[in-house]
Request: fold
Amino acid sequence: AMVCSRFGRAALRGGVFVDPYAERPYLFHLGLAVVERSADPACRALAHDEVLEYVLFGLKQEEGEPMVECPVERLLLLKGGSGIPAPALRFAASAGDLREMAKAHALEWIARPLAEERRRVLLESLPSHLDFVLRGYDYQDAELAAVRAKLTEKARDGDARARGEIAKIRERQRALMARREEALAALRREPELIAPGEVTFLAHALVVPSDDPEDRKRHDREVEAIAVRIAWVHEEANGAVVKDISTPELARAVSLTDHPGFDLLSRRPDGEEIAIEVKGRAGIGEVELSENEWVKACNLGERYWLYVVYDCASSHPRLLRVQDPFRSLVARAKGSVIIGEGDVFACAASE
Reply:
């Protein structure tokens, strides 16, 4: 809330970013989709509007192409631009109309399916919820009926106080049945009140291509940094002590050569020490091992692991681990060696 209040207007005016892998300019919209339950004054339990779900979404809009939803994290990998290049001026000038198109798309293809899914889940679980509520009220009703039966016996024996208590029990039973019908009506009514709420945009970005090799290198370094963090966390979660040896200085600090051929040195709880080479991809694709890395994989055999992290530009990166890649993977030479994603998936460790 603080960030939006301070920077929200500037974010909605939009910024320029550089995507070194883009072929044409595109707009990136960061938005918020809402699923709401409308109020029904006839049901006390549903007397007020309620927001059921908030979902952040990213939407990529390229001229002349269908809009596609993409992870909001992708924007974090892009470099800030210094202005609108001439080839993108005409596209940028139509941003107002494109934004309205994006809003309509987000309502129809993001917010509405979310609401429909929420409604579907409620309808599927409705019979069990109705049964649960009925059994709860039946249990209370049975308790009141048992108390009423005992009081009736006492009243027959002349207990005047018992007659007064029976009247109270009858009233409680009537109130209980009314509450039961109200609860059941609310459960049946709720799915009908679920609908998509307003789509709100939080930020807009004009993303332009770049043919500068340094931009692509910077982007790849950001992806690799995400992959290394994920690999590191995985090892530490399994009790290992991890050391970063990805630079000559760090490698020398642990008595290795300047270019050891892997990124992480991991000592497992059982004392085993393994070498981990980490590769990251924003989505899914081939990975490339340098000649030095491939030689080290050959020399270390089962002590060498290739950790590949796919979908680094998403909220759910996927880590695949391949032991002894020199003998496990099929590679083709290209000065370095290229490993297809299908081979990585096929040879990845199951745990």
Q: What stands out?
A: Residues 43 and 189 are 9 Å apart (CA to CA). The two ends are 40 Å apart (CA to CA). The chain has a mean pLDDT of 92.
